[in-house]
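hiii so um. not sure if this is the right channel but i have a protein structure encoded as tokens and i wanna go backwards to a sequence. like what aa goes where. can anyone help
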């Protein structure tokens, strides 16, 4: 009886969750849509744009876990983006979609109570690759009528795909070849690390990696994250790496926003606060 009473007392709190504006179109394709989660009465609120994973071939913007509540509780606007998937969404179609969505968010932020000068990007897995790419290669945002300067910071949750040519000789190569093909020019163009250079307005990065799919840590993940961080820092771009190999590839994303996740969520919040205060 006490448990039932506790649940009933919680229902009003659950019902007062964020206002959600679903399936807002940023293009003509059915997948060119985004969802906006609004806190109560936002005023110049920072905006987090989230890009889902799924191997560039599946996934959906609805799979956000605790992230909207986490950000809304802190007064942030949270946006989750769909983009075209394989085979239609082959590079650079997918990253161009992401850039187009970010451009719309930047254009409409003030109307929703957001601050267009505080646009952040976060992605998981394939979405982490797209977040890193849209924030290092200026071409997608320029195609959408914007520049890298509209991005305030990036949180990358677990991808190996920072430098695709560097995956030659690893067990992961056949999978990435199936996604990107084997054309060296395309592999270079789809590699965030290979776009890093000083003077491009690339924003600060928080790079997080898990142990991978299995029980034992995959060495490629730590190496890819550290190599990307090193390239950013050499170009004068603030960057940090979080070793979250206490969790697997799915859990690093699923646990984000939990109150007890000090390792990733807590450090991510400190990273964001350092860029908004």
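sure thing!! here u go:
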């Amino acid at each position: 009886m006490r448990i039932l009473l506790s649940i009933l007392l919680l229902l009003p709190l659950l019902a007062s969750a964020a206002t959600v504006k679903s399936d807002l179109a940023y293009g003509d394709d059915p997948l060119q849509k985004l969802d906006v989660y609004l806190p109560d009465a936002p005023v110049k609120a920072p905006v987090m744009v989230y890009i889902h994973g799924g191997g560039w071939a599946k996934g959906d913007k609805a799979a956000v876990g605790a992230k909207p509540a986490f950000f809304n509780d802190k007064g942030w606007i949270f946006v989750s983006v769909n983009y075209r998937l394989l085979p239609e969404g082959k590079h650079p179609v997918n990253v161009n979609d992401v850039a187009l969505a970010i451009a719309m968010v930047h254009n409409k932020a003030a109307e929703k109570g957001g601050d267009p000068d505080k646009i952040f990007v976060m992605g998981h897995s394939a979405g982490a690759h797209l977040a890193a790419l849209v924030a290092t290669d200026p071409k997608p945002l320029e195609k959408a009528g914007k520049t890298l300067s509209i991005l305030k910071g990036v949180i990358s949750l677990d991808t190996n795909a920072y430098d695709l040519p560097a995956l030659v000789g690893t067990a992961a190569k056949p999978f990435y070849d199936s996604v990107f093909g084997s054309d060296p020019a395309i592999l270079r163009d789809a590699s965030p690390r290979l776009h890093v250079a000083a003077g491009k307005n690339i924003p600060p990065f928080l790079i997080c990696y898990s142990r991978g799919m299995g029980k034992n840590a995959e060495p490629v993940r730590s190496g890819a994250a550290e190599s990307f961080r090193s390239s950013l820092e050499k170009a004068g771009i603030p960057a940090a790496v979080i070793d979250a190999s206490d969790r697997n590839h799915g859990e690093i994303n699923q646990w984000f926003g939990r109150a007890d996740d000090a390792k990733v969520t807590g450090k991510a919040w400190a990273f964001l606060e350092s860029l908004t205060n």
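oh and The chain has one domain: 18-276.
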